[in-house]
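Thread title: Can someone regenerate the structure for this chain?

I was given the following input by a collaborator and told the matching structure tokens would be attached. They weren't. Posting the sequence so someone can regenerate them.
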Amino acid sequence: MSDVQNYQQGLQRAELLLSQRRFELARRQLNQMLAEYPDDSTIHAMLSMALSTDESIGEDVRSDAHVEQLNRSTEHARKAIVSDPNDPFAHYTHALVLYKRNRYEESLEATDDTLRLDPQDSDCWGLRAANLLELKRFEEALQAADHGLEVSPEHGWCLSLRSYSLERLGRLVEASGAAQSRLREDPDDSHAHCMVGYTHLNSGRHQEAKESFREALRLDPTNEFARVGMMQAISSRSLVFRAVYRYYQWISEFNSKLGFIIIIGFYVVSRSVGALGQAFEAIQPYTTAIVLLYGIAAIATWLAWPILQAMMRFDRFGKHLLSREEKWKSSMVAGVLILGAVAGCIFTYLSEDFFAVLIPFMYAMVIAILIVATFFVPIGPKRWGFAFASLVVALLPFYGLFSQVNGQQGAFSQSITWFTYGTLAIQITSQLVASRRQMV
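Best answer:
Regenerated them for you:
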């Protein structure tokens, strides 16, 4: 058998393994070929795809292992482009890994390069539509999906993305018709079941919506649209659940800089309110309550998602949406907040001061923040170090109180100061980690 035949058979085998989602075997096959053809554009591009589409490393797709995997995928995509700048497949795999890394603007630019070389690439039109959906440019996403369907009228991804775009644009009848049509052609299409779920959701049929989203997630557990849709369906069952979910949706519209803005805002509010209290004696009794209320509102921004996760634990559909790590985190946050609320009620009863409830509850919310911050750090020695630092910070007020009781004047107030600074330091670090894991 000639070298050319061996090469072609090797690529066909790798392509088959990729279609079967047997990524490890595909990578092994491609790496063997790469040893013989180190500058081959197609092999590098296929390796990039095998690495970027395999999200099986751990439950958290932003683990260190997965970040490293995406970095290697990007490296192979770039090598493919260097080897053959006119290979549209190389540019497509580069756009795909950028999409997987949540770099939607950059991925969109990479799809321009692909379509310039091959305007008939329906997969790339689908990827372009997916990027535009993430950027909330729904009309353009619809146009991109339509372009893909002009090339390939039965293209499953473009059909699903077209339905999503129609749903986001409020064209629900068209979206429903497109989803139902797709289901008739392929009953195992996760995205089509998801779109039917959104149709039920917008019609107020929440139970039917849950069933559709559950089927979509059974077919594709990584379908984030179905996961979000299931959360919406679950949140519609009660006023409290709906309020928490809408608050989470609202803060999700902001980028990672929101955390830093809240931290700075807390400092500004506490200093401003203190100055106003000194200038106007009438509001002085309320300054502490104002600062505490702002603090609770700010901390609730960071805790909205874990609280929502904790509430989902009590729903027979929602509990299946959470990973083991998310279940641990939500349980710990919920337990701490419940203890804080109980302690606050006891404080209020004993002191006969309504605002006394805020003090232990505020402390509990800060501890919950430290828990969430710790879970932002990937599993391993770094997380254990972070957990130890959080524990030390959490115990500082008790150490100050113990020292004050034993005659050390000002120890408690000093410990509160260090407790505040320690919490801010840990939270700022967690925000940096969150930014890194959101876009890698």
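The longest helix spans residues 324-351.
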